[in-house]
Amino acid sequence: MDADVPQFKLTPIDSFPQIVNGLRATYESRRTTAISFRLVQLRKLYWGAYNVPFQLSLVPLIGAIAAGNTAVVKPSETSPNCAAVIERIVSRYLDPVCYRCVQGAVAETTALLGQTWDKIFYTGSARVAKLIATKAAQTLTPYTLELGGNNPAIVTANADLRLAAKRLLWGKLYNAGQICLGQNYILIEKIALPKFVAEMKAAIQEFYPDGARASSDYGRIINRHHWQRLKHLVDKSTGRVLLGGTMDESDLVVDPTIIQVDDINDILMTNENFGPIITIYPVEDLSEAIRIAKKVHNTPLATYSFGTKSETDRILNEIRSGGASVNDSWVHGTVPTLAFGGVGESGSGAYRGRASFECFTHRKSYTTTPSWGERLLALRYPPYEGKLDIYQRITGAEPDFNRDGIQQGLLTRYGLALAHGSLKLAALIQYSLFMLLRCVSPFYNCGMLLADETQQSRDDGR
Hints:
Layout: H1 16-28, H2 35-46, H3 52-66, E1 71-73, H4 80-93, E2 99-101, H5 106-113, E3 120-123, H6 126-138, E4 143-146, E5 152-155, H7 161-173, E6 185-189, H8 193-207, H9 224-236, E7 240-243, E8 247-248, E9 253-254, E10 257-260, H10 267-270, E11 277-283, H11 286-296, E12 302-306, H12 309-318, E13 323-326, E14 347-348, H13 354-359, E15 361-362, E16 365-366, H14 388-395, H15 410-420, H16 425-438, E17 447-448, E18 460-461
Parallel strand pairs: 1-2, 3-4, 5-6, 5-12, 6-11, 10-11, 12-13
Antiparallel strand pairs: 4-14, 7-10, 8-9, 15-18, 16-17
Helix pairs in contact: 2-3, 7-8, 14-16
């Protein structure tokens, strides 16, 4: 191991209560409240390394810091070198009494979930997410789940096939396909299939003139377990290999592989391959493509569409997904200010940009009622004899629709109100005062508590 990379060490489980209780005490001391404090922490974090393992751990942490919270970061043990560097960044550059990094696998994660939290943020598989959601339900702890999904790409005969091939290849071969946003399969109209495959082969040659394995721009599979998982998927598929298929376990490499399948129950259709395997399924038309996409996975993390505007609009409207990119691959996931998240089986909640702040924030609504308004509020106190009719006239607003759900015009509503009976003068005066005072902010001082340096109250951060 390179001397510059710290050693990966498991965090002792018996230290978890002390870590969590210490962070909770820090939060209660309001140390993280001041905007100036948060900005200093975020500026320190800015200088850390940045790629997929770091992004998935540090981007949510940025939201937690911005919202004025204390936090524990638990990186994935699957990439131990990155996890060790993340721990170094957190411990060396952030306030250690506010932010901690713990390391571990199943046992440590289970023990960590046994602590009391105000919010849990998890990125990973649906299988683990179900365990986390079950554990969180025992203490009614809210959570955000960022999961994967069998993301479909749909290419119609009207699409720019060269552009579609090039952009989908970029999205799928990025990080050797080890990204949850990559398309899991491509649904393409049969009439366009030969040209599309030819364009894919040309694009691969353009990307890697000397072959993918010889290119420094092409990644490797994270470990032997996942390499064997990919090999198992290819071996079990009944599809036809159109390009690639070469694998080398000693180097953990899987060449870009294009496989055409004709069965929606093929293992490459039903499983998220999470690798550089491009699965293509020919369809008769757009209707069949949409029908298959919804059957394979009803709520994917993302959908990618290539075709005319009317075709892509139809795809967006008829397929539920966490996000979508039109005429490209996962570009929506690269915009730092755009909320990102799944739906249904691909996750719940969102983050990035303002959504990250809101993810770790509770909006507390409040009112302030001054003592000088007591006389005007006397109507609400018992005894109510003689008050009910006035109260109903004050609070009983007429809807702008009738019992059949038909919207009524302003004159019709006034006519109904007058037909109902004339208002007493006292009720009319009190109603007018009541409505006037509702518009005056000192009487109904309603708002959302947002943290800043000049206001003592703040959001209840998670």
